[in-house]
Design brief:
Blueprint lengths: L2 H43 L4 H18 L4 H18 L2 H23 L4
Helix pairs in contact: 1-2, 1-4, 2-4, 3-4
């Protein structure tokens, strides 16, 4: 292996290790962006009250933190309950957004837990 090839290999290894070390922060940043997107879409496009939307998003995060270690079928029950509440309240699109946010939060929490970061 020549000198140039060694440098490329070292650069590639340092980039992949830097990404691996920072992947947890990228996931958390992604969830923060998802929360912001849900709040903005709900308030601006769906014309829902900001206080209620923020409260629902905080409750979603709390439920996700409390239930991230339960079996997968229980998450399915939580999602069905959310969708049923959305149908009963007439805000199905908002509850679909909240369900997607719940799924993203659970995935990130599972990743962080599996890698012993929390």
């Amino acid at each position: 292996m020549g000198e140039g090839e060694k440098r490329k290999a070292v650069r590639k290894d340092s980039k992949s290790s830097a990404l691996g070390e920072n992947l947890q922060y990228i996931f958390v940043f992604g969830v923060i962006l998802a929360i912001l997107a849900v709040v903005l879409v709900s308030v601006l496009a769906l014309r829902l009250p900001a206080f209620g939307v923020c409260l629902a998003v905080l409750l979603e995060a709390g439920i996700a933190v409390c239930l991230h270690d339960v079996p997968i079928w229980f998450h399915g029950l939580v999602l069905l309950a959310e969708l049923a509440a959305g149908i009963l309240c007439g805000e199905l699109l908002f509850m679909v957004l909240c369900a997607a946010l719940y799924i993203a939060e659970i995935i990130v929490l599972k990743y962080l837990r599996d890698n012993m970061l929390i």
